[in-house]
Design brief:
The structure is a single chain. The protein has a six-stranded parallel β-sheet with strand order 1-4-3-2-5-6. 32% of the residues lie in helices and 29% in strands. It folds into two domains: 151 residues, Rossmann fold (3-Layer(aba) Sandwich); 116 residues, Riboflavin kinase-like (Elongation Factor Tu (Ef-tu), domain 3, Beta Barrel), CATH 2.40.30.30. The chain is elongated, with a radius of gyration of 22 Å. It contains ten helices and 14 strands. The two termini are 36 Å apart. By secondary structure, the protein is of the alpha/beta class.
Length: 303
């Protein structure tokens, strides 16, 4: 898969089929859209492409980082697995934000990127202040003889699949249900940093993980999880919260990795949350805390 960093004036070399959307989480609904993209590209003997903003559009509009389900790095890994050929990565700025729907579609997509076919979800909006909708896109595609494919909403067990719905599941601790809708485990990428070493002294060393993007914060508590280190997968009992028994300040992501004793400070790791085990508790003593940690570890071992 080729990742091409572009601006609004970039001119593509070849025609392609493109999928448009934010794709946060790359959930099962997104995957239906992307499968259609790959299939359409093969049918037309063209490359499949996706347009992705380097950062969430709201970061620029509201000057505040948005909570995400996936980093771009994770998105791109999934795109490559699905078989996407090209990711056009563009910075969302004033020039992009103020494009009219007509300019975005006709000048930028159809002319500059040489798009022959467009794949979007049923609720796709585009252009300045999201003033372009599906009906406007239909008119513009018909006018320019561009093929348009609109993917219908996807329901699973009566639930309409959306990134917002999945975010709410994660916030309420329902990561196992969220994972089913994502089609993969909710994953937090980050770097291992130094902590206070108390767990190490008590026989339960933890990897303190500093997330590399602003992820959706799961309900505080302990999670059965896997952690990927240098391509290898290890079981872990992970606490996400403020550690109220000891510190009760600032968010902590602390993974006790089973059957692992190597120093991994500074390493990039991927933490996959599998199941919520229990809420975060303020214990009366540190000894009570570590007795509970022993039970948590046993639950993870017995998975």
């Amino acid at each position: 898969m080729e990742i091409i960093k572009i601006d609004k004036d970039y001119i593509a070399n070849d025609k392609s089929v493109i999928a448009l959307g934010n794709f946060d989480g790359v959930h099962l609904g997104h995957r239906e859209l992307l499968k259609t993209l790959v299939s359409k590209a093969k049918e037309l003997n063209m490359k499949s492409s996706i347009l992705i903003f380097k950062e969430h559009t709201k970061n620029f509009i509201y000057k505040e980082k948005q909570f995400l389900l996936t980093s771009n790095e994770e998105k791109y890994r999934i795109f490559e697995e699905i078989g996407i050929d090209i990711v056009y990565e563009i910075i969302f700025n004033e020039d992009i934000m103020t494009m009219t729907p007509e300019y975005f579609a006709e000048d930028f997509l159809f002319n500059n990127l040489k798009i022959n076919s467009v794949i979007v979800g049923f609720d796709y909006t585009f252009g300045y202040k999201a003033s372009g909708n599906i009906e406007i896109l239909k008119e513009l595609c018909e006018k320019n003889n561009i093929d348009l494919n609109i993917i219908k909403p996807v329901e699973i067990e009566g639930d309409l699949l959306s990134s917002t719905y999945i975010r709410n599941l994660i916030k309420s601790g329902q990561v196992d249900k969220a994972n089913k809708l994502l089609g993969h485990c909710y994953t937090i990428d980050g770097y291992v940093i130094h902590g206070k070493q108390l767990g190490n002294k008590m026989g339960y060393p933890t990897a303190n993980i500093e997330p590399d993007v602003k992820y959706v914060i799961p309900m505080y508590g302990v999670y059965d999880s896997d952690i990927i280190i240098d391509g290898k997968v290890y079981k872990a009992a992970t606490n996400i919260g403020k550690n109220p028994t000891i510190e009760n300040e600032g968010l902590r992501v602390e993974a006790h990795i089973l059957n692992f004793s190597e120093s991994i400070y500074g390493k990039k790791v991927a933490l996959r949350l599998i199941k919520f085990l229990r809420p975060e508790i303020k214990f009366d003593t540190v000894d009570e805390l570590f007795k509970q940690i022993a039970k948590d570890v046993k639950d993870v071992e017995n998975r």
